[in-house]
Amino acid sequence: MKKDVSNTIGKSENEARLAILELAHMMSVPMSLIAVLNLKVPEAIMQDGSNTPLSAAQILARIRPHGGADAENLQRLLRLLTSYDIFDEHLSCSGQRKYSLTHIGKSLADDDQGLSYAYYMLQHHEDALMRAWPLVGEAVEDPSVEPFVKANGVSAIEYHTKKPDDNVMPSIYKSFAGMCVPFMMEMLQVYDGFKGVETLVDVGGNSGITLRMIMDNYPNVRKGINFDLPDMVARAPNIPGIYVYLYSRSFSF
Ligand SMILES: C[S@@+](CC[C@H](N)C(=O)[O-])C[C@H]1O[C@@H](n2cnc3c(N)ncnc32)[C@H](O)[C@@H]1O
Fold it and tell me: How far, in Å, CA of 223 to CA of 234, rounded?
């Protein structure tokens, strides 16, 4: 007997169409997220520390108090990001939409050290990297020059370490610190493997901030060595007890 597969085919074709549509528009997600991060929307919602739901117009009143910005367009971004679990949407009986931050969204608002996951997200979508992505297919045809170098003339590490940056903490440090500090805080609560260690080497220690956190928790670690590239450690903050070790041969993570 011939098996009726029409429903199955229809279902999988529909799923395929939806999947392709989602993939075709995928760029809207990181681009919308970058837009709300640049607008400092997470900080605006957390401004009074309460994460109280706010309408797009109320958010704009906090970030653009002199007016002139478009609440309707901000709401479009917020609605899109609500479907990716960055915001929670609260719909009132009158049809007004308000937004608060989800658990994921809260990780994008600055903490009391001025750190958050936002800096990693921003650094991974900055212009230099965005110039390299369209060239990624060329790396298949000709792998001799990596896309970032082709687009920007220098390697990613060189670009980031040589970039003029008058911040107290250059963006490449803030990007990694924003990701690593919360992780290390949790790790230090459960891992006690640093007991008895006197000298600790952090390979690829970046700004040295996680090494400092370990040394603050374990006074037995008297000497820390931040083993990183010369340009990276050259701009790293000077931390008592932490020495830098320069290594320039390339390796990948
Ligand atoms: C993902 S970051 C590490 C983040 C850091 N562990 C923290 O806790 O914040 C990778 C680091 O590896 C470093 N790195 C890359 N190539 C290296 C090399 N050849 N020698 C030493 N460090 C290198 C980079 O400069 C960068 O600081």
Answer: 19
Cβ–ligand 1 distance for 120 under 6 Å, the answer no
116 lines ligand 1 (CB under 6 A): no
Our mutation pick for probing the ligand 1 site, out of 180, 184, 206, counting the most ligand atoms within 8 A of Cβ, is 206
Each residue's pLDDT tens digit, 23-43 = 999 999 999 999 999 999 999
Cα separation, 246 vs 249, in Å, equals 10
Q: Is 247 in the pocket of ligand 1 (CB under 6 A)?
A: yes
Give the strands of the sheet with 223-228, arranged side by side: 199-203, 223-228, 242-246
Cα separation of 210 and 216, whole Å? Answer: 10
Task: Decide whether any atom of ligand 1 lies within 6 Å of the 173 Cβ.
Answer: no
The per-residue pLDDT for range 126-159, each reduced to its tens digit, is: 999 999 999 999 999 999 999 999 999 999 888 8
The domains of the chain, with CATH numbers, are: 16-106 (1.10.10.10), 118-246 (3.40.50.150)
Interface ipTM: 0.96
